[in-house]
Amino acid sequence: MSETPxxxxxxxxxxxxxxxxxxxxxxxxxxxAQAADRLGYRRLWVAEHHNMPAVASTNPPVLIAHLAAxxxxxxxxxxxxxxxxxxxxxxxxxxxxxxxxxxGRIDLGIGRAPGTDQHTxxxxxxxxxxxxxxxxxxxxxxxxxxxxxxxxxxxxxERFTATPAAVSAPRVVLLGSSSYSAQLAGQxxxxxxxxxxxGSPHAVAAxxxxxxxxxxxxxxxxxxAVVTASTLVADSDEEARRLALPGQLMRLSxxxxxxxxxxxxxxxxxxxxxxxxxxxxxxxxxGGPERAVAELRQLAANTGADELMVTxxxxxxxxxxxxxxxxxxxxxxxxxxxxxAA
Length: 342
Description:
Elements (H helix, E strand, L loop, with lengths): L7 E5 L9 H18 L3 E4 L13 H10 L5 E8 L5 H14 L4 E6 L6 H8 L10 H11 L24 E6 L2 H10 L3 E3 L8 H11 L11 E9 L3 H19 L9 H5 L4 H5 L6 E3 L1 H15 L3 E5 L5 H15 L6 H4 L1
Parallel strand pairs: 1-2, 1-9, 2-3, 3-4, 4-5, 5-6, 6-7, 7-8, 7-9
Helix pairs in contact: 1-12, 3-5, 6-7, 11-12
Protein name: FMN-linked alkanal monooxygenase
Keywords: Monooxygenase, Oxidoreductase
Family: To bacterial alkanal monooxygenase alpha and beta chains.
């Protein structure tokens, strides 16, 4: 890599494995966050999912508050808050408070999908008319206005404030896996994160549209694109493939709507659907450090990403932390404190 390698960040899904409790999953997320902080990753995001046996991250603001309190330098945020599930004023108040507690370290990644089934989305928002994607642009503008964006005229900010005396605002990032979100992020002058780890083949086209649509804003003078990648690194390619199997089975359960916790390595090895899981098309990066770095470099070159965000899916937390350690060393990240100590 060059002397200043492309920034790497972490998307942490707070997965619940077979035989684990919610408390176990959240303790594991803390361990991953502290490892990412120590190793020199730029940011750590947690996602919003509901009513899923394999995901403990149901309320990103609560989890972000805890993770920011037990880390020192890494930016912490949402990847993302699914805005159709929430009133914009509630989200603005939550993240304005987080920013006041941890100035300069809070990211607010916003998505327009519900992140769950329609029944759960309705239980969260309580009004079917508010679940339409047509409401999303106005909700997003209201959110920006509540954070003090002077470009936004009218809306909630005319009558409300997210916090009484803000000196800074969280970094708002638009998330997506389609041209819609890419174009909207560009038009609003926001950073854009493409969810490549979903398996979408449209990353290059969406990011080109983002850059073509981009209009500079006070928050962002030029486009800034983050690309996520499902990435699991182990000491060898063979070991990485073995560790990846539980995550493959979890993805199969999501695609077939037969949700369950992430199976253990022992369970995965004898799972009757192992062949089907291993045979699914995937853009996941799985291998030893050399292979992982080469494939991530190629992804960055293909997409023109300004930052890559990795997410590892397996049963054990030790394996997830080890993946981050191996990748950080091979990529050339600077561990926390090393630059100032030199």
